[in-house]
Amino acid sequence: MKNHLSRRVARRFVAGEALDDAIEAARAVNDALQTASLDLLGENVADEASARRSAQNYLAIFDRIAQEHLDANVSLKLTQLGLDLGVSLCEELLDSIVSQAARSSNFVRVDMEGSAYTQRTIDIVKSVRARRANVGTVMQAYLYRTERDIHNLIELGCRMRLCKGAYSEPPEIAFPKKADVDANYVKLMKILLPSGIYHGIATHDPAMIRATKEFAREKKIGRDKFEFQMLYGIRTDLQKQLTREGYRLRIYIPYGTDWFPYFMRRLAERPANLMFFFRNLIPRRP
Ligand SMILES: Cc1cc2nc3c(=O)[nH]c(=O)nc-3n(C[C@H](O)[C@H](O)[C@H](O)COP(=O)(O)OP(=O)(O)OC[C@H]3O[C@@H](n4cnc5c(N)ncnc54)[C@H](O)[C@@H]3O)c2cc1C
Description:
The chain is an alpha/beta fold. It is built from eleven helices and eight strands. Helix 10 (260-269) crosses helix 11 (271-279). The structure holds flavin-adenine dinucleotide. Flavin-adenine dinucleotide binds next to strand 4, strand 5, strand 7 and helix 10.
């Protein structure tokens, strides 16, 4: 399945396989008055050489962003930088990327992966952040622990992206019901927004967006004090609407050859995406 067909369908969610594709997508996003976050797809690398190659690629991405004068930062996953192989290798590589980003006053966002990695991700981000402040991470509203983590990271001045969470987690550690995840999302948004730190509210859910706008209005939190974030290719209607209304919006642009796990998470999130996938299984008539 990881072939021609899925590649064609994946293009709905992924900008392409080469850095040039991501740069082109980021330029279009900037032209639409939105900012970008480039994600070179990849996770759970199996050896040190691959982890070091990923880090080198990220250094090159920051060079390219600066050369092209793009309004874009970077999102990455720690298992792409060898987290499965050891914390020290991973921290060393993240540190090198964060210092490269600092040279062009840019920012690195560390995505949050499955719960097996939550604590290590927070620990590594805190440790690298103690040296340079231009790194932040992601908080998942489906985890019970997140409220505590958010309070802790706010004390350190850490920028966070709030999302619902994309991995399959057991009820011992995560809200099983969507309604509870949504309620927690709103609760956490209300902790993040007044913190005086620039955070990202990442969602395509109109109810979450409405709650955020209302809360910001009520608390007189300016539109330049936070940003909404959405994924490339998802709810482009809402993306345009937020920009028209004068809200800041960052588009997360994934690219690269290792797109399969990302693509599967997007399919799993929404039954309609599976229909879209299966419709493409039916051969088209010439
Ligand atoms: C910028 C950004 C970064 C993210 N980073 C992380 C991360 O680091 N770690 C992590 O665990 N998760 C991450 N996520 C994913 C997130 O956790 C959710 O899985 C995903 O955003 C769906 O949740 P939702 O808030 O859009 O709400 P939902 O309730 O899932 O969806 C609301 C509406 O959005 C639309 N929608 C949502 N998903 C899709 C889709 N796949 N295809 C088509 N339409 C869709 C539909 O219209 C749906 O009704 C990120 C999401 C965004 C936007």
